[in-house]
Amino acid sequence: MSDEEERTVPDAEPGAAVSGAVPGNELTVPGPGLTVSGLQRRLAEFAAARDWQQYHTPKNLASALTVEAGELLEIFQWLTPEQAADVMSDERAAHRVRDEVADVLAYLFQLCTVLEVDPLRALAEKIERNESRFPVP
Question: Residue 2: exposed, middle, or buried by beta-carbon count in 10 A (0-12, 13-18, 19+)?
Fold first, then answer.
């Protein structure tokens, strides 16, 4: 997708299908102007403005990703299955969950950028492999 095409995305309605990081891939947008490649670019610009790219090695990003995933897990650590299923009904807990999900996703997107992995394509290919490995009975 060219930069010019991507600039048209901010007018997209929530729930609209727009192109993702790879031409031909579709991504359902939860809000106006959100694309994987656009978010990856914002994360890269954020890091560059603070001169943090020097720390964004694959090892460091993978480590940070696991730390943030652990922080997400910590929210659920001592909850019963019923409490865990209801966690989003408590606004404070829901805010924590959203923040940790965002942190996990941010580090995953940054890792994908550094390693030049298209996350949507990687996921689609993995789903296809799993569909072959685990056919419906």
Answer: exposed
In this prediction the pTM is 0.75
Q: Which residues, other chains included, contact 35 with Cβ-Cβ below 8 Å and sequence gap of 6+?
A: 6, 9, 18, 19, 20, 21, 27, 29
Predicted confidence band of residue 49 (pLDDT cuts 50, 70, 90): very high
Residue 23 Rama label (left phi>0; alpha psi -120 to 50; beta): beta
Is residue 7 classed as helix, strand or coil in its secondary structure? Answer: helix
Backbone angles phi, psi at 19, to 5 degrees: -65, 140
Instruction: Identify the band that residue 31 occupies on the pLDDT scale cut at 50, 70 and 90.
Output: low
Cα distance between the two ends of the chain: 39
What is the band of 30 on the pLDDT scale with cuts at 50, 70, 90? Answer: low
Residue 107 half-sphere exposure toward CB, CA atoms < 13 A: 19
Helix segments in 50-90, DSSP class H: 58-76, 81-85
- DSSP conformational letter for 18: E
